[in-house]
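Lecture 7, part B: from sequences to assemblies.

Below are the input chains for today's worked example.
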Amino acid sequence: MIEITNLTKNFDQFTAIDALTFTVKEGEVLGFLGPNGAGKSTTMKLITGFLSASHGTVRIDGFDISENPIEAKSLMGYLPEGAPSYGDMTTLEFLNFVAQVRGFRGEEIDQRVQHVLDEVELNSVSQQTIETLSKGFKRRVGLAQAIMHDPKVLILDEPTDGLDPNQKHHVRELIKNLARDKIVIISTHILEEVTAVCSRAIIIAQGRIVADGTPAELESRSKYHQAVSVRLSENYDLAADLADLSEVSEVEKDGEDEMVFRILASDGKSIFSQVSGIAQAEHWPVTEFHVSRGQLEDVFRTVTQQKRGAQ
Amino acid sequence: MGNLPIIFKRELLSYFATPLAYIFIVIFLISNGIFTFDLGGFYARGQADLLPFFSFHPWLYLFMIPAIAMTLWADERKTGTIELLLTLPVRLADAVLGKFLAAWALIGIALLLTFPIWLTVNYLGDPDNGVIFAAYLGSWFMAGGFLSIGSCMSACTKNSVIAFILTVSICFIFVIMGSPILLNAFPAWIPQFFVDAFSAMGFLTHFDSIAKGVLDIRDFLFFSVFIAAWLLASAVVIEMKKAN
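Predicted structure of the full complex, as structure tokens:
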């Protein structure tokens, strides 16, 4: 379990992280979201003990990161932002080094290194120097070192940044497989990633938590939650037919496609059956008709900008 | 303690993974040859000792050691590997010491490879090999002094060129601190103990006597304490500047 209490980091006069408090339990995959500069990376650096906090504590399975740094660090695997590694070493040499620092000796080293090479599919480049590798491979080398010791806690700072869609998919599958009995914290600004891999999401803005919940819970905060989206084949005045329905708050035209309309529900009530009844009765010229779960992007924008507006 | 040898090994091998170590050793050996035989008048002196060889070392080190030291921490910061290294279960002391010792070992290897000069002087005459051995050891300890300054300067910046210039400047000050030209420039009103203390910090003060064969444990102690102090300063600077 990770317990973060009142975590604060000041740089001179600037407060980067402002009294964060949250806990993460085994089995949770926590997505850490926020606009650029919100303090995502700083928080990760504080959790992993690279930076020391101005106030507050980070405890990893009871080990305080500032009082028992070696014990706490031993429990964690960390992929720093940009996946730094020693460019003049080959993949194999680098992973051997990490295995030794992680305390493996003798045959264990070869076994562990081979295991992670298989896990992240690096066998083909094991003899190449890291600086000659593509971005995707470098990222995987970073992941390989992070999972070397099968850590209880895995902290990944933008693990899929700069990867192509196939590689992204692969990394996400990997994270899902790893996650079962571990704690995984992923920072990202790619929202689809959160719905794809995370069981929980925390949104921070200007160093404070502005939202915390499962991706579904956060989506339900969106004004598009339960909204019905319809595509028409010809112009038709939907709003006139829906005027009597009190559960409908608004009919919105899609910004990109003229023939697509969103019928928004008031207070997140289900309006699908009513709307579909009216559509059939009034013979709407409909070609597509579906319910939206809500848009995380919309929630993200709302909560992070509210914060900015409030100041 | 556990991870010091692992870091030491990685650092030392990484010098040899790039041309850096080879270039350093080759230039070190060539410069030593030129200094000893051409400028030092090794043959003309007609004495079976290595004084001309050793007396140029401070000036050789002044430029060569900062070149090795400048990347020690600056590159780690620049490439971000410092974040990787210091979030592994590694003590900062092990990292600082491991890196220092690896660079010091590289200099040691370069110094050992000057052995043909030692053989030459034994072939030509009958030198005091005990003196030569002590001078080698003294030279290596002085190199450690230069290197420890470089470690600290490298920790101060992301830019290795700046680290190089800072290291050369500070090393230069320590080299000339004990020289008569500088000491004579002090106004008379400055108390003598201050001038003595100042002179005692100079590298030449300690190295000259070692090179001449005056083996005083205090000279070695000076360099040991000097190295320890600068490495401690390196650790403090790394800790302070991690956030930038």
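Note for the exam: Chain A is about 35% helix and 25% strand. Keep this in mind when comparing with the next example.
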